[in-house]
Write a structure and sequence with these properties.
Elements: E1 18-19, E2 22-23, H1 32-45, H2 49-63, E3 69-71, H3 73-79, E4 83-88, H4 98-111, E5 116-120, H5 125-137, E6 140-146, H6 147-152, H7 154-162, E7 166-170, H8 177-190, E8 195-197, H9 208-216, H10 218-233, E9 243-247, H11 252-258, E10 268-276, H12 287-290, E11 292-296, E12 299-303, H13 328-336, E13 339-345, H14 346-360, H15 366-378, E14 387-392, H16 400-407
Parallel strand pairs: 4-14, 5-6, 5-8, 6-7, 9-10, 9-14, 10-13
Antiparallel strand pairs: 1-2, 3-4, 11-12
Helix pairs in contact: 2-4, 4-5, 4-9, 5-7, 9-11, 10-11, 14-15
The protein binds pyridoxal-5'-phosphate (PLP).
The site of pyridoxal-5'-phosphate has 19 residues, from helix 11 and helix 15.
Keywords: Amino-acid biosynthesis, Aromatic amino acid biosynthesis, Lyase, Pyridoxal phosphate, Tryptophan biosynthesis
Subunit structure: Tetramer of two alpha and two beta chains.
Protein name: Tryptophan synthase beta chain
């Protein structure tokens, strides 16, 4: 997980968790000791050989890593231009990249002597991943979820129950993710002695954005070795891709695949936000493209907020991208120009979803379909010998009802 630092962009955050003017730790006094304890524990274990060996063992034997990279030949043919490759995070145990991060944090919780895990979830995917790993390690698991989300995401609530987790429906505010986040923080303050707060994306107060990125970076590190050998095998030359594309909700699958590539300036990095019904419709979740700097979830980042700093309602056909902020490192990569950000609408994502099903026999998550949509737009602007690597962050079985309803 360690990274030898020579590049002023990829070496961040600094000791206080800043990525330029973003990141940091905006928390009350009551949480400060818990956060400090977590920071110390993570810094101690991140380079510990036994910790790293166990993490790698779990990734290999429980998750099924390394995930393959697949040349989507027919999809590329139809797009007409660059060759599209898919990093198959959908083939992980539980069907997405989220498992990589929850394993790392659960291992840390065990070493810190915290037998109780709390989490918040909107779409329920992070709740399921957390419940999974708590079952695996015999940890108590409490998941906070807005009552509106509990209603909308029934199958994931059922999964969490089967895995032995307690789901606490939150009835305050808009009864969605924001409210669940507040309840989780309240729980943490009250039960800090025995409780570990397991965050599901590269957000939250320092050290979470760095820690989650480090755990997810296994995705990009695998690509660094897989891509040259696969391209050589296909007669395209031993090299890295020209562009790496990933969808951005909170930004963890994108940071995971981007991070090892930051130091390779020839590789373009493109994050794709949910443009919903259009970037100018007011119904989207594009925090970087349409947000402004603010504080959310304990860090300074780009936030979708009104003139009074109130977080606004977001919209996306994919529940996993429906988050009013974004990880602070993305705000920084955007500001420095090292990564570019684009939007894909609900319509474009749906179209890409169906195309991948029909042409490659792969049912992608609606989140990942946003990245595929952007790759399909990008490919015709590139040469046939150029390469786009898409992070296929998850599988779409969970989305078939949403898709049927949208198509009806
Ligand atoms: C949760 C989720 C996302 C969005 O989260 P990030 O932190 O932005 O990666 C994307 N894809 C899938 C499949 C997810 O489950």
């Amino acid at each position: 997980m360690n990274h030898v630092c020579s590049n002023p962009v990829s070496c961040l955050p600094d000791e206080a968790g800043h990525f330029g003017r973003y990141g940091g730790s905006f928390i009350g006094e009551t949480l400060a000791p818990a956060v400090a304890q977590l920071r110390e524990a993570y810094l101690r274990y991140r380079d510990d050989p036994a910790f790293r060996a166990e993490f790698e063992y779990e990734l290999a034997h429980y998750v099924g890593r390394p995930t393959p990279i697949y040349h989507a030949r027919r999809l590329s043919e139809q797009a007409g231009g660059a060759q599209i490759f898919l990093k198959r995070e959908d083939l992980n145990h539980t069907g997405a990249h989220k498992i990589n991060n929850v394993i790392g944090q659960a291992m840390l919780a065990r070493r810190m002597g915290k037998p109780r895990i709390i989490a918040e979830t909107g779409a329920g995917q992070h709740g399921v991943a957390t419940a999974t790993i708590c079952a695996r390690y015999g940890l108590e698991c409490v998941v906070y979820m807005g009552s509106e989300d509990v209603r909308r995401q029934r199958p994931n609530v059922e999964r969490m129950h089967l895995l032995g987790a307690t789901v606490r429906a939150v009835d305050s505010g808009s009864r969605t993710l924001k409210d669940a986040m507040n309840e989780a923080m309240r729980d943490w303050v009250t039960n800090v002695d025995n409780t570990f707060y397991l965050i599901g994306t590269v957000a939250g107060m320092h050290p979470y954005p760095m820690m989650v990125r480090d755990f997810q970076s296994v995705i990009g590190r695998e690509c660094l070795t897989q891509m040259p050998s696969l391209l050589a095998e296909l007669g395209m030359g031993r090299r890295q891709p020209d562009v790496v594309v990933a969808c951005v909700g909170g930004g963890s699958n994108a940071m995971g695949i981007f991070h090892p590539y930051i130091d390779l300036p020839d590789v373009r990095l493109v994050g794709v936000e949910a443009a919903g019904q259009g970037l100018d419709s007011g119904r989207h979740a594009a925090s970087i493209l349409r947000g402004s700097p603010g504080v959310l979830h304990g860090n300074r980042t780009m936030v979708l907020q009104d003139a009074h700093g109130q977080v606004v309602e977001t919209h996306s056909i994919s529940a996993g991208l429906d988050y009013p902020g974004v990880g602070p490192e993305h705000a920084w990569l955007h500001e420095t120009g090292r990564a570019e950000y684009a939007g894909a609408t609900d319509e474009a994502a749906l179209e890409a979803f169906q195309r991948l099903c029909r042409v490659e026999g792969i049912i992608p998550a609606l989140e990942s379909s946003h990245a595929v949509a952007h790759a399909l737009a990008l490919a015709p602007t590139m040469r046939r010998d150029q390469v786009i690597l898409v992070n296929l962050s998850g599988r779409g079985d969970k989305d078939i009802d949403t898709v049927s309803a949208a198509l009806a």
